Structure formats: structure tokens, C-alpha cells
């Protein structure tokens, strides 16, 4: 398993970058006519959403640790 320790600022930057990528990806999904490519893009979208959720959990854990 891979482990990466990020500061709160780095965590927020990564989350922001993933959300921007997700926005661009959704536009690409809407513009593609190739069903196989669209499927791969949807899989990538799902993975990015999972990463964003995990980062949110990590941010919450960091916030709880400071209390």
C-alpha cells in the first residue's frame, strides 16, 4: 500500500486540482461519441470521485486530530 503525508494546504490543493480535472473530464465525456472511450472516461470519473471522497475523509481526520 502506498502512503503519502500531506499538509492541510497540500491536501486542499490536491482536492481542488482533482475537482478541476473532474469538471474537464465531464465536458470530455459529453463531447465524445465513442462508447468505449466514454466508458473509460466514466471509470476515470468514478476513480476521481473516490479519491476526492478519501481526501475529504483525510481532511476531516486531520481536523479532528487538532481538536
Strand content: under 5%
Total beta strands: 0
**End-to-end distance, in Å?**
28 Å
Helix percentage range: over 70%
Radius of gyration: 15 Å
Average pLDDT reading = 92
Main β-sheet: number of strands, strand sense, barrel status? Answer: none
Low-confidence stretches: none
H/E series? HH
Label the structural class.
mainly alpha
- Looking at the structure, what is the overall shape? elongated
DSSP helical segment count = 2
Could you characterize what this model shows?
With 67 residues, this protein is mainly alpha-helical. The chain has helices at residues 8-31, 35-66. Helix 1 packs antiparallel against helix 2 (35-66). The longest helix is centred in the C-terminal third of the chain and has 32 residues, at 35-66. It is elongated and about 50 Å long.
Provide a quick synopsis of the model.
The protein has 2 helices and no strands. The chain has about 70 residues and is mostly helical.
Fold topology:
Blueprint (H helix, E strand, L loop, with lengths): L7 H24 L3 H32 L1
Throw out a few tags for this protein.
0% strand, mainly alpha, 67 residues
Amino acid at each position: 500500500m502506498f502512503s503519502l503525508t500531506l499538509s492541510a494546504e497540500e491536501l486542499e490543493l490536491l482536492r481542488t486540482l482533482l475537482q478541476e480535472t473532474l469538471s474537464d473530464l465531464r465536458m470530455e465525456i459529453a463531447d465524445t461519441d465513442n462508447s468505449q472511450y466514454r466508458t473509460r472516461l466514466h471509470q476515470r470519473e468514478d476513480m476521481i470521485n473516490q479519491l476526492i471522497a478519501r481526501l475529504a475523509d483525510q481532511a476531516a481526520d486531520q481536523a479532528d486530530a487538532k481538536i
